[in-house]
Amino acid sequence: MKGRPIPSEPISHERTVLKNASEYHYLKIQLVFQHEGVKLTAAQYKSLIVSAVKELHGEVGASCPLDLLKYEEKTLSAILRIRSSGFVKLWTSLTLLGQYQNQACSVCVIQVSPFLLALAGNSRELDLD
Amino acid sequence: MATFVDLNIMNCSDVKRLQSVIEMAAHLGYSAVAINHVAEFEKKKMEIGKPLCPADLFPSPPTVQGRRRPIKILTRLTIIASDPSHYNSLRSTSTLTRPYDIVAVYPKTEKLFHAACTSIDVDVICINVTEKSPFFFRSPPISAAIERGIFFELIYTPAIKDSTLRRYTISNALNLMQTSKGKNIIVSSGAERPLDLRGPYDVATLGLLFGLSEGPAKAALSINCRSALLHGETRKTAFGITYTMKKPLVLEDEESAEEPVTKKAKKE
Questions:
Q1: Considering A112, B94, B154, B160, which has the largest number of Cβ atoms within 10 A of its Cβ?
Q2: Reported ipTM
């Protein structure tokens, strides 16, 4: 037991239990259009989402703070952040979004998680082979 | 975990479009879909004869996302009833409905709704979501239907298309939840185009909007659909007895051809 390093500070253990620690929820979504070649800027993308929430849940729903964290223009996919209280409101209004400027579209929710790190890998298409 | 099932994909004459809808459903993660054949009696156009054969539609069905298995394609018949005589084909000539996996009715009046819940032999009762419900959902027929294992179906595609229909969908759903308390509810798409479909987890969240709580909302897509399919299976054969026939490959040089095909009766 000679080579074992002797810790300079005393070792202590701490046990912390957090319940609903995350204040935010994160969603990874993708907008799908019937016809390809629709271009949207990040500002247009966000206003589309906010107007969808406003249509279903009104001003109160739209007032919930919503952030567009990452936006990829090529695939129309994005990562959204929302307060946990407005999470269901956002998700349901994304589900019921049917058209943008008279073009049929649908929002594909790829992943949801209260932690951003979890969006790194996709559990729904988990390939075990 | 029970698998996700979508019990209502509108049948249309355009085979290409039907194929793309089913491909989309497989991509979103549904393990089984039912193609809906609608029989409207007012038009005197009854095509109960033969459902669309799934094998004709796809030589090899698309693989379901996340579980390397081909999607299961079922058939379903919906009868739109506005007069008591429309139920006759369900009562007497039940051979007509036999090729279908699921039989549903869409009652237009309270009297027919009561009859469908209490006496008619169906699996699913469709709830009108495109207009204000013409009658109240009273407790006795609904509790009788829950007792018999009949399911109520809500369709969400009209809610995507139009904001007025969305209002009717939500209000009728909430009315139904008040009496049924979230039991025996199925949420399905009624999709005609691929973009009408939503992923199963999205639809489960939509259930929260319809007044279901989280557990029943997920059951509305998975467990309840499975129960409805099993209910349909017992109706197709007999109540509680299922015969399966296994045909062994007959080899030429063996004398096994004269033996009758083994039948196995199994009691549930």
A1: B154
A2: 0.79
- In angstroms, the separation between the Cα of residue B39 and the nearest Cα of chain A is 28
**Buried-state track A33-71, b at ≥16 Cβ within 10 A, e below 16:** beeeeeebeeeebbebbbebbeebbeeebbebebeeeeb
The beta-carbon neighbor of B195 closest among A91, A105, A125 is A105
Chain A CB contacts of B203 under 8 Å are: 95
State how far the Cα of A112 lies from the Cα of B198, in Å rounded to an integer: 15
Chain B contact set for A92 (CB, 8 A): 205-206, 208-209
The one-character DSSP state at A102 is: T
- In this predicted structure, the answer to whether residue B251 has a pLDDT above a threshold of 70 is no
Q: List CB contacts (< 8 A) between B189 and chain A.
A: none
Distance from CA of B15 to the nearest CA of A (A): 18
Nearest of A63, A68, A79, A80 to residue A42 by alpha carbon: A68
Residue of B nearest to A55 (CA): B163
Q: Which residues of A touch B29 (CB under 8 A)?
A: 124
Strands (E), chain A: 24-33, 66-72, 77-83, 99-100, 103-113
pLDDT tens per residue, range B201-239? 888 888 888 888 888 888 888 888 888 888 887 777 666
pTM for the whole structure: 0.78
User: Which chain A residue has its CA at the smallest distance from B24's CA?
Assistant: A108
Of A34, A94, A124, the CB nearest to B195: A34
| Closest residue in chain A to residue B206, using alpha carbons only | A92
What's the average model confidence in pLDDT over A100-104? Answer: 80
What lies within 8 Å, CB to CB, of B186 at 6+ separation is: B7, B124, B151, B152, B153, B154, B220, B221, B224, B225, B228
Lowest mean pLDDT among B136-145, B172-181, B259-268: B259-268
Nearest-CA residue of chain B relative to A87? Answer: B205
